[in-house]
Amino acid sequence: MQACLTNEKARDAFNASNKSELYVMYQDSPNVLLYKNPNSLVAEDFDTEQDIYIFDRNYTWTYVHTHESMCGPYYKVK
């Protein structure tokens, strides 16, 4: 297990993070999406998504939104 921010602290950290470019990956999909200039994205944009992993181009942080309503979201800084 890794120490990370959870719940509202994770959302706040994601919303405040530098998002000049980021990757979005879904657990059951072979595709990884690259978002360029996504600074207007906020954690709430992903509330209806399940098992989604979002990380910046340099892998300095990761935001995870799971399918379990009682778990996460999670935000981890490298």
TrEMBL record:
Domain of life according to the entry: Bacteria
Listed InterPro entries: DUF4275 (IPR025454)
Pfam families, sorted: DUF4275
Name by which UniProt lists this protein: DUF4275 domain-containing protein
Organism: Paenibacillus aquistagni
Lineage, opening ranks: Bacteria, Bacillati, Bacillota, Bacilli, Bacillales
